[in-house]
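Build the 3D complex.
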Amino acid sequence: MTAIAQQFLAPSNFILQDKDAGRRSFSDLGTKEEMKLKTTGLGEQIAAYQEILYAQHQHKLLVILQGMDTSGKDGTVKAVFGQLNPIGVRSISFKAPTTIELAHDFLWRIHQQVPATGEVVIFNRSHYEDVLITKVHAWIDDAECKRRYAHINAFERMLSETGTAILKFFLHISKDEQKLRLEERIADPNKHWKFDPQDLSERKFWAEYQDTYQEVIHATNTELAPWHIIPANSKTQRNFAIASIVTEKLARMDLAYPAENPALYKLKVE
Amino acid sequence: MTAIAQQFLAPSNFILQDKDAGRRSFSDLGTKEEMKLKTTGLGEQIAAYQEILYAQHQHKLLVILQGMDTSGKDGTVKAVFGQLNPIGVRSISFKAPTTIELAHDFLWRIHQQVPATGEVVIFNRSHYEDVLITKVHAWIDDAECKRRYAHINAFERMLSETGTAILKFFLHISKDEQKLRLEERIADPNKHWKFDPQDLSERKFWAEYQDTYQEVIHATNTELAPWHIIPANSKTQRNFAIASIVTEKLARMDLAYPAENPALYKLKVE
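Done.
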């Protein structure tokens, strides 16, 4: 069986515009409801793996989610990782940096949150914002941007070589799909908390963001920490794809409960 | 005037054994008492620079002190940085890593402590312990050690390129000098708190530590973060050398109070 991850790995020199955000990669897997059930099944598998990962206390898994506003980063966390025991998983949402964070290098706040052995950590936005929004608005110049790519690649190499498995996902939606989702947020009072008027001003830079995402993914698409491009107009397709890739990764991580300790059997509990 | 730092920069391919720990680099600067006064004067200058560095809130200075037990790391902090306003300086002593620290990559606890803009931070021991004691006792193999050199160099490059000036000092004492200092600690009840019986067992690995220090300094002696080798059998000579190098560095950092704000003059305080 071909690994599902393979289909989604960003090829070198891909053109983001040619990637169809509406592509249905799993058309043969039944109805929407059936696919949701399958994703829930994968979520259970991920939770089972994570129990072993936690007990084994040896591996670390870092999942990085990036995408335009409304691309479904929060929804992915819920659908794919919602069944994990909170004791061994942390979801970190990186917002606009604080004064103290800005007084340090851009990787300072990121490094503090990387997984410890036995942990799964999800970055909901990440250090990639420091080469995205900053680039689009020309807060940094090209030379600084190139230096940051090198810093990111060195940082991820270090994490990887010290035992952290890294999965990077770009949730790819179309401009039309974002329109629908923003309108939905505006129309539904229960979704008003998710709406930020700034989303509308950032939407004006849609083309610039697409170009920048493409450049960033090209520049940081390394063997140790490759990018997956996930067509994300369909939430069902998106969740199934990511859940599958995470499951595959965990399946290959050589997870096992620590060996039995024969000495324990002789102990008397009084 | 030639910069004092130049004399102490580790040349590529130097042999540590050929470096005289007892060398008196400043024989023409008067008596011991006169030199101590000069060091105090430099300490005042450093304190004055630091006030500006703090107000300017733009530069960061990281000083890394490494050396064998008793080589004078604590003494250097006191003699060179003792006059700084604690508001803008932090001295961090890295001890044996905790369980939580060991569950992360070796740079995790280090990165958390790097200076923010406006700060001077002194590392009393550092990430270099992770290629020293670990190498001497073969807790890591050569391949892992080489990977760590690369991680350290990439990390220090990132810090440097994001605005942190880095000064690295190896306090070089002789084995005989260490003997005297350990005996002093044993003989003086007021110094017992500084004595750790483990110092005696580590002393047995003296030759291995010298070899490893030489290799480590060669491998991490970069243009952006060069090593200074400080003959440290004489505390007076050591302190004067380090105080001079720190002063020189600050003098070249383009420190200045932020520009006046003419609008302020029009303000009325009621």
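The domain at 3-254 of chain A is CATH 3.40.50.300 (Rossmann fold).
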